């Protein structure tokens, strides 16, 4: 099977509209969480979110095309552009059918859905947009990337809740290993910040209610955590077979060495309390990569800041890593950007690649009062310089979907 490497990165996040800005601010421990600005949230119980700020789709694509896309697709087109340029990848008629797209999501065009339903009831059937269906359909982020950049290889999308972004890397890895494409544009995107969606999560009891201190609201592994902060954004990787990347002289960030997906078969929103599905995903991903637990230097945790997830993920890590769990560095970017749902795992993959490249691990901010049940090394509050040769990205979603991807420093040696 082909080895797979990472050659390009793109990101649209609450910390910036490109990878360098996102990474600089993440390492500095800055928070991109604030009071909601996209709509009037003054009558909602939860009034904070990790919003993408200053995003104008016209900076990234044709205005007419942008008007026919939901925000989640606009994010994907923008992040893909950065990743393709970062990879130095030229897409031509000759190679377009050997390039594929795998852009996953948790919900698809939720903003379009909510807006058009309101239009139907307030203004009548004739005012519903004829572009409604091709705007909200979850596969449209992948399709729009294909259309905008002329990619004619396999175009796919899976809806996998909070595991979606990482699952995109796992599925793309499998396609590349089997030779079904030479290059995959893979990642996750989400733009579900609407009054109804925020209210729905709040009514579940899933969201933090720290409206008066938004930057301190997301507190993974802290005993005072009270829920996650809803966010939006997108992250994309250019993944290639090693042969293809070396043939064209591409700069290589790292190797995508393995991955796995599993199911809890437990509950629609709560994780298995013993973390059995999450632990199995980590074990299988490491086995797929041909590595053991003690090879791992860094875990980019799911780390949502909910009472259930953080304890469960800690249990799962201990089950897989044993005593070594206390020596591996772990951190959660969600402490700074919130939970980007379908994009969360994709962002974690970008973090893993950059941690390997730069030899530095971002912090978990707001970790002030560690939960006694969360007693591992979560890199509290300050980034840490350290060698990172192997990093794993965890993503665990509603419905019990679990996805884990393993990234390894690329040395060019035969395996």
Automatic annotation (TrEMBL):
The UniProt record lists the keyword 4Fe-4S: no
Pathway(s) served: Lipid metabolism; fatty acid biosynthesis
GO molecular function, one term: 3-oxoacyl-[acyl-carrier-protein] synthase activity
EC number(s) from the headed UniProt entry: 2.3.1.179
Stored SMART domains: PKS_KS
Pfam families: ketoacyl-synt, Ketoacyl-synt_C
Catalytic activity: (9Z)-hexadecenoyl-[ACP] + malonyl-[ACP] + H(+) = 3-oxo-(11Z)-octadecenoyl-[ACP] + holo-[ACP] + CO2; a fatty acyl-[ACP] + malonyl-[ACP] + H(+) = a 3-oxoacyl-[ACP] + holo-[ACP] + CO2
Entries under CDD domains matching the protein: KAS_I_II
GO cellular component term, pick one: cytosol
Family designation: Belongs to the thiolase-like superfamily. Beta-ketoacyl-ACP synthases family.
Record's function text: Involved in the type II fatty acid elongation cycle. Catalyzes the elongation of a wide range of acyl-ACP by the addition of two carbons from malonyl-ACP to an acyl acceptor. Can efficiently catalyze the conversion of palmitoleoyl-ACP (cis-hexadec-9-enoyl-ACP) to cis-vaccenoyl-ACP (cis-octadec-11-enoyl-ACP), an essential step in the thermal regulation of fatty acid composition.
Protein name: 3-oxoacyl-[acyl-carrier-protein] synthase 2
UniProt gene name: fabF
